[in-house]
Design goal:
6 strands; YaeB_N_sf; transferase; mainly beta; TrmO-like_N; S-adenosyl-L-methionine
Length: 154
């Protein structure tokens, strides 16, 4: 496969400085869009949405620590070994995170958010408004370990 070149559209400013699990809904941060490439018109109308979806890079994950096989999420021996594509851990092949978070305010090219599970300095690759129609259609199903893992995440 040919490499895909992606350029960050902005950077996470503030919030946590270290990645640790749980209580992300208490975190507030700013997504600062690149003013050399974008102007306030780029976010016109975004403030009419309550939530945004953010694609970012886990920039502090050492590529040598990426997982490609099965492991127990968070190393918990009570949970089954599952493949990297059956979990949302940060040690992923392309080190990409996807987060839905509350949009608190739009101030020029600064997007104020709460609940973004990215840390200060994370490159932001894309921002999209969350629209309910893009959510899952029909019933969703997940294993009990995933529900337990996410219980205190937000």
């Amino acid at each position: 496969m040919e490499p895909i070149i992606v350029e960050a559209v902005g950077t996470v400013i503030g919030g946590r400085t270290e990645a640790f699990d749980d209580d992300w809904n208490t975190e507030q941060a700013v997504i600062r869009l690149d003013a050399t490439r974008y102007e306030p018109g780029s976010v016109a109308g975004l403030d009419t949405f309550s939530h945004v979806e953010v694609v970012f890079q886990f920039h502090r994950v050492d590529p040598a620590s990426v997982h490609t096989s099965a492991r127990r999420p968070r190393g918990n021996p009570d949970w089954p070994e599952v493949g990297i594509f059956a979990q949302r851990g940060k040690n992923r092949p392309n080190r990409l995170g996807v987060s839905r978070c509350r949009l608190l305010a739009v101030d020029g090219l600064d997007l104020h958010v709460r609940g973004l599970d990215a840390i200060d300095g994370s490159p932001v690759l894309d921002v999209k408004p969350y629209m309910a129609e893009f959510g899952p259609q029909g019933e969703t199903v997940q294993p009990a370990w995933a529900t337990e893992l996410m219980r205190a995440y937000y």
